[in-house]
Amino acid sequence: MNGEEKTYRRGVSQAEYAKFAKHLQEMPDNGVKVGDVVADYMNREDVRDAFNIPHDVQAWESCSNILEYHTQNEASQWIYGVLKNQTKLMFYSGDSDGAVPTYGSKLWIKELNWKVEEAWRPWYTNGQVSGYIEKFDGLDFITVKGTGHMAPQWKRQEVTEMISAYIHNEAI
User: Fold this and answer.
1) DSSP calls for 50-96
2) Terminal-residue alpha carbon distance, the chain
3) Angle at 53 between CA 7 and CA 151, to 5 degrees
4) Which residues are within 8 A (CB) of 13 and not within 5 positions of it... i.e. 6 or more apart?
5) Per residue of the chain (172 residues), what is the pLDDT tens digit?
6) What pLDDT is attached to residue 71?
7) Among 43, 48, 121, 145, which has the minimal tally of Cβ within 10 Å of its Cβ?
8) How far apart (Å, rounded) are the C-alpha atoms in residues 110 and 128?
9) What pLDDT, on the 0 to 100 scale, is given for residue 7?
10) Letter string b/e over residues 43-78, b meaning 16 or more CB atoms within 10 A of that residue's CB
11) What is the pLDDT of residue 133?
């Protein structure tokens, strides 16, 4: 890139990607990598230029080990109170998400102590239950049935229709 050689990891194994899944840690590596094509694309010089990424910034990697993450007790919960009544707010969660469990999301939403305006009910795609929605004064909480953290990837039609309806003020 810009005459400088940069190295990067071409994707990660399933075991590396989902370290919390103990059964994957014990399986033999089959050579399949998650994110290898994305890594190649994101590290192309023309793509980095299009994203205005300076040449001195390291190469892009999925699940980089370079970053140091810091935790906060409240995570991003605080922003909902700041944005309430300023913009529409939605939080959605795959109901089988092992990384950010729906149960934990429901707990912090309950701690907001915002009035329930529409009770927990199913929402549908093509006549099938796609998840559940509960509307609060200032926040819509929506679950996506049968998927985890990568809901837009694994439930593409359902999530696309949900977000489109939300943006256009249509019923979900």
Assistant:
1) HTT--TTSPPP-TT-SS------SSTTHHHHHHHTTTS--EEEEETT
2) 45
3) 85
4) 29, 32, 33, 34
5) 777 787 777 777 777 777 666 666 677 777 777 777 888 898 899 999 999 999 888 888 876 666 665 666 666 788 888 999 999 999 999 999 877 889 889 998 999 999 999 999 999 999 999 999 999 999 999 999 999 888 998 999 999 999 999 999 999 9
6) 61
7) 121
8) 27
9) 79
10) beeeebeeeebeeeeebbbbeeeeeeeeeeeeeeee
11) 97
Residue 12 DSSP label:
B
Nearest to 142 by CA among 111, 102, 88: 102
Rounded distance between C-alpha atoms, residue 44 and residue 85, angstroms: 42
Q: Give the 3-state secondary structure of residue 134.
A: strand
Domains and their CATH numbers in the chain: 1-70 (no CATH), 77-167 (3.40.50.11320)
The DSSP letter of residue 34 is: B
Asked whether 95 and 147 are in contact (CB, 8 A), the reply is: yes
Asked if 102 and 78 touch (Cβ cutoff 8 Å), the reply is no
CA–CA dist 111, 25 (Å, integer): 35
- Contact in structure between 162 and 147 (CB atoms under 8 Å): no
- List 123's β-bridge partners, or say none: 131
